Amino acid sequence: MFVLDEHGTPLQPCPPARARKLLAKGRAVVHRRTPFTIRLRGRTAADSRIDGVEIGIDPGSRHTGLAVFTAVAGERRDRYAIRLDHRGPAIRKKMGQRSGYRRRRRSAHLRHRPPRFDDRTRPAGWLAPSLRHRVGTTVSWVGRLSRLAPVRAAHVERVAFDTHALSADQPLEGVEYQHGALHGFEVREYLLATFDRACVYRGATNTPLNLDHVRPRSRGGSDRVSNLVLACVPCDQAKSNRPVEEFMARKPKLLAQTLARAKAPLRDAAAVQSTRWALWRALDSRLPTHVGSGGRTKWNRTRNRLPKSHTLDALAVGEIDTITQTVDTVLVAGCTGRGSYARTRPDRHGFPRLRLPRTKRFFSFATGDLVRAVVPTGKETGTHTGRVAVRSSGSFNVTTAHGTVQGIHHRHLRLLQRADGYTYTTRKEKGVSSRP
């Protein structure tokens, strides 16, 4: 749990059991519900020992993993884990809809904003809104965690794979670097991204995958990445040292797709790569930031026998020796936004069909606030905790972990935490339990 002193200065995080004892004895109060933070009474940072923590970041297209941990002499102990769910696809869809509305209004000679031609130059480092959202939300959460914990440094994956560690015709900086300890991990990470972690011959997933040579080495094939694909164990054994054209002679369409995918560029990966560079620059301007590759992250996670997840990858980013402690509960923060500036809802042609109230807050509550409803009588009698959806009539809906409770009067609600643009849930880290 995160801990603040009486002035709001972040202190060293503590285990949940200690936080419960401090709250029970009245030595602390709840400062924030999610992420759960306590504020000590009668304690200042000057009277406390603060060793500091570090943040690991595993950036992704749909999800980003964040891990807050302590690092001493190469040993990492996980303290808090967050999975940030982005809404990049939703932003891209909205941008496409807006562009379509404007195009239709111009072509139909309706009311429209005149097209602009004089301000179309994109500055250096420009990112599309859906990509800029990923960078902005991640940096925002790093800043938020820095206000809740004494963050000393950040570790982030800047590239998915180190291209210098891939095989080439000529060594870039000597054969020692070309075939270093991470050589196999970088190649495998590249192929997993290229072939969507599936067997190219029959599409099998969630199964062990081997590296297979399209043109066998016994027939003159090389170890270049363009000659490597992923194959499950049965397909790898059935193909043996036959050329892929002979092995897939009865599947010409699949053969053409396989050869094309082996040479196709990673467009999605390239977008994520550009986001990672922008993220590194944004973090490096705020905190001492160390970088690593996805291959090294996988190597660290494999050495410590941890399963695959965004939060555990965040814990394994960079140069480490051992991971001695993990958390078994992950906070999932889903990006929902803070609503829309527009107070209308458009139809499929872009014309307004529904008008919304000019204000978003009713009876001191706004949609997305975390509330506790204590209903004394009626069909929904009981205590309900969750996110509220407000109406001007004062009859609200509360969405809890078990469903939606409808028609609760605002007098029965108590505010726990203001809406901040995210929805919060928790989940268990699969295959991981807290270790002392």
Short descriptors:
436 residues, alpha+beta, eight-stranded mixed beta sheet, 23 strands
Describe the structure.
The structure is a single chain. By secondary structure, the chain is of the alpha+beta class. It contains eleven helices and 23 strands. The protein is 28% helix and 29% strand. Strands 5, 6, 7, 8, 11, 12, 13 and 23 form an eight-stranded mixed beta sheet that branches. Strands 21-20-19-18-22 form a five-stranded antiparallel beta sheet, with no helix packed on it. A four-stranded mixed beta sheet has the order 2-1-4-3. The longest helix is centred in the N-terminal third of the chain and has 20 residues, at 88-107. It is globular, with a radius of gyration of 26 Å.
Rounded mean pLDDT is: 84
Question: How many strands, which pairing sense, and closed or not: the largest β-sheet?
Answer: 8 strands, mixed
Low-confidence segments, given as residue ranges, are 163-181
Class inferred from helices and paired strands? alpha+beta
Number of H/I helices: 11
Helical coverage, percent range: 25-40%
- What characteristic shape results from the CA principal axes? globular
Radius of gyration, in Å, reads 26 Å
Beta content comes to: 25-35%
**Number of DSSP strand runs:** 23
The end-to-end span amounts to 16 Å
